[in-house]
Specification:
Largest sheet of chain A: 6 strands, mixed
Number of strands of chain A: 12
Number of helices of chain B: 10
Structural class of chain B: alpha/beta
Low-confidence stretches of chain A: none
Helix content of chain B: 10-25%
Mean pLDDT of chain A: 92
Strand order of the largest sheet of chain A: 6-9-10-3-11-12
Helix content of chain A: 25-40%
Number of strands of chain B: 21
Mean pLDDT of chain B: 93
Number of helices of chain A: 9
Structural class of chain A: alpha/beta
Low-confidence stretches of chain B: none
Largest sheet of chain B: 11 strands, mixed
Distance between the termini of chain B: 47 Å
Oligomer: heterodimer
Shape of chain A: globular
Radius of gyration of chain B: 21 Å
Order of helices and strands of chain A: EEEHEEHEEHHEHEHEHEEHH
Strand content of chain A: 25-35%
Distance between the termini of chain A: 31 Å
Shape of chain B: globular
Chain lengths: 249, 448
């Protein structure tokens, strides 16, 4: 589904990612774990095409296209979804307007017909019901006054509606207490499918109790220093990042 | 502000002769010519304009907006014949109005208006009729225009006022649906000057909504020099909405003078999109405790437009609340001017007054000149002022793009939401919806 080869990324002229190689197959869930400053969010933003994240070497092939050639909106059309670590507040833009505009923009770019108000509402009903989220969230301005848990649930709802091929979840657990975490993880798990891949970026092992990965990779100093099965996460939990940082240095 | 009497032998300021000549030729035919008091007001207005001249940068109130170049344009008296060609008025902004008044080139057209059917206690007349039949009603309200040495344009309006509307709401009377006044201009090639003057008196406990629109029916140059005097008496409420869509070559000036009594409420919402140069001025005095004055503005400039919003709220009584909130978006080489002042007099303890101008600058050449000011003479008040200017929030823009929304559409969405935010100060309902639709129809900020 996605093949990242030798990816080097600078932020403000400083090298952060120093050669990332990663392959995630269709239907697979990979976790990326690492200490602060290892480049986890940089990887997420570089994949999504955020301005200021400069690719200096390497390539990314996604669903048969060269991802790095595409504008952020084109990457979404190609089927990429980034669940933000810090979802942005959009005063004056309701969730409904935001999602309908996004969905129809993506559908239009793919040559599909746009949904009218009724069809869209039906889709929203379906998705909010599936996730156990209230529709009321969408009547409010996006993320304005939302608690941490509400913001992350909102990301999950957007993901459900936009139906991406690859979801990159950037520290979905940050700022959440255990109950909120469980609710958000539930939502994400409902979206797991053999047709969808996920890259779950996290600092703590705890999230991976709920969103169980197929593969775990340890990111340190801008490189993947170790990969393994889900047991690797438990090993990290026990031993800490120290051992891996020494190995990487 | 000092009130200097003007001697009749003072030399005329440059660029004022054309209007002095027009006045001499027209004065015996202008509404109220038969009433000595009205004639005297007009004379006083002309004297003030001739003496001060077109406002320029050295006059504090006009620091960022000079009108000196207009002295060289030679505006003509608005021609009635051009107005005669108008047989239809543009569609209303609202699904329901309590009354509609249509003015063409400064004269009320009864054939295009619907002025009857208002609830009891609400009267809507033309200025021409009131000046002829009931001039004493307005004297006190209009006279200050001749006295202010910093407001020559309002004095000129007093001299040459051709028509307007006079809305009076008797004690306890209420009219829910908006009263819509459309100011239509047909300039032709004549570069006319149009001086419309209106008055609104809301008596004790009365309630009304006045919605004014300024529209040009073709693209020529003209000067729309309007003034409105407003009094909201004890417990009264007036919602005063204005949509300015003048032609791209027009000069639009509008001066509002407002007096707000105890427990009364004046809420102004001004939308400014058109004109080459537009200035909307509001001078409000809160004269009674517990009163509220809310001034909201939304503006969008492009090309080389200059959009000026100057408002002053004077708290002369305690325990009153005021807000001035302006959101604007400026593109190309357009320029915004914001002058927002709060004066809190010594007796006005417990004043709660805040003022904010936020401007989105979409291009290198766009500019905002902001002069927020506080003059506080009381010692127990809560006041603040501020002005911000910047580009669209980069994080918000990326968030929208990351979800598949193309950049131009994303910018448009964010700019629209930014402008629309001001309308959240209005209760949900037909007025808010109509204004929101109007703002969204501007399609501003859609360029990548």
């Amino acid at each position: 589904m996605i093949e990242i080869s030798n990816l080097h990324v600078n932020v403000a002229d400083k090298p952060i990612l120093k050669g990332i190689d990663l392959k995630v197959g269709t239907g697979e869930v990979h976790a990326i774990m690492g200490p602060n400053g290892s480049g986890k969010s940089t990887l997420a933003y570089a994949l999504a095409g955020r301005p200021g994240y400069e690719v200096t070497d390497g390539s990314v092939r996604f669903a048969g296209v060269d991802l790095l050639e595409l504008e952020p909106e084109e990457r979404a059309v190609a089927g990429l979804f980034l669940a933000f670590q810090y979802p942005v507040e959009l005063p004056g833009v309701t969730g409904m307007t935001f999602l309908k505009t996004a969905l129809n923009a993506v559908r239009k770019a793919r040559g599909d017909s746009e949904l009218d108000a009724m069809q869209f509402l039906r889709l929203i009903r379906e998705k909010t019901k599936e996730l156990g989220i209230s529709e009321d969230m969408l009547k409010r301005a996006v993320n304005v006054g939302f608690s941490g848990g509400e913001k992350k649930r909102n990301e999950a709802l957007q993901m459900a509606v936009l139906d991406p091929k690859l979801a990159v979840l950037d520290e979905t657990d940050s700022g959440l207490d255990i109950d909120a975490l469980r609710i958000v993880a539930d939502g994400v798990n409902k979206l797991r499918s053999p047709e969808r891949s996920m890259i779950v970026i996290t600092h703590y092992q705890r999230l991976l109790d709920y969103i169980v990965p197929d593969r775990v990779h340890v990111l340190a100093h801008g490189r993947i220093v170790k990969s393994g099965g889900k047991e690797l996460a438990l090993e990290l939990e026990e031993k800490g990042y120290g051992a891996f940082l020494e190995a990487a240095a | 502000m000092s009130q200097q009497p003007v001697t009749s032998t003072a030399a005329a300021a440059p660029g004022t002769e054309a209007f002095a000549e027009q006045f001499a030729a027209l004065k015996d035919r202008l509404p109220g010519a038969g009433a000595p008091a009205v004639a005297a007001l007009r004379e006083a207005g002309l004297k003030r304009f001739s003496s001060v001249g077109w406002p320029h940068n050295k006059i504090e109130a006009w620091k960022y907006t000079t009108l000196r170049p207009l002295g060289g344009i030679g505006f003509s008296a608005a021609a009635a014949e051009l107005g005669a060609s108008v047989q239809d008025a543009p569609r209303s902004l609202f699904s329901e109005t309590a009354a509609r008044v249509v003015l063409v080139n400064g004269h009320v057209r009864r054939d295009l208006s619907q002025m009857d059917g208002l609830p009891r206690g609400v009267s809507l007349r033309t200025l021409a009729d009131v000046l002829r039949d009931d001039p004493a009603l307005l004297d006190g309200m209009m006279a200050p225009s001749a006295e202010d040495p910093e407001q020559p344009m309002t004095a000129l309006n007093l001299a040459l006022m051709s028509d307007g509307v006079v809305l009076v709401v008797e004690p306890g009377a209420a009219v829910e649906a908006p009263i819509e006044v459309m100011h239509l201009i047909v300039p032709g090639d004549a570069a006319p000057a149009v001086h419309v003057r209106s008055a609104v008196i809301v008596r004790e406990g009365g309630r009304a909504t006045l919605a004014e629109r300024h529209i040009a029916l073709d693209g020529g140059a003209y000067l729309a020099n309007g003034a409105t005097d407003i009094v909201v008496e004890q417990g009264g409420t007036l919602l005063h909405v204005k949509v300015q869509s003048e032609s791209a070559d027009a000069y639009h000036l509008h001066a509002n003078r407002v007096r707000i009594a105890q427990d009364a409420r004046y809420h102004s919402v001004v939308l400014s999109r058109g004109a080459k140069l537009a200035r909307n001025q509001i001078d409000a005095v809160i004269e009674g405790t517990g009163a509220e004055c809310l001034l909201d503005g939304i503006y969008a400039g492009s090309g080389k437009q200059l959009l000026d919003h100057s408002s002053l709220i004077e708290h002369a009584a305690p325990h009153a609340r005021s807000r001035q909130v302006y959101h604007g978006v400026l593109d190309d080489q357009s320029r915004g001017v914001f002058q927002g002042k709060i004066i809190v007099r010594q007796p006005a303890q417990k004043t709660d007054g805040h003022q904010l101008n936020r401007a989105l600058l979409l291009s290198e050449g766009a500019e905002i000149d902001a002069k927020p000011a506080l003059e506080i003479y009381a010692d127990d008040v809560k006041c603040s002022h501020g002005s911000t200017a910047g580009d669209i929030d980069a994080d918000a823009l990326f968030y929208l793009r990351a979800r598949g929304i193309p950049e131009a559409e994303a910018r448009g969405l964010l700019v629209g939401a930014f402008l629309d935010e001001v309308l959240e100060h209005l209760l949900e309902g037909p007025v808010r919806t109509a204004l929101s639709d109007e703002v969204r129809s501007w399609h501003t900020g859609g360029r990548p």
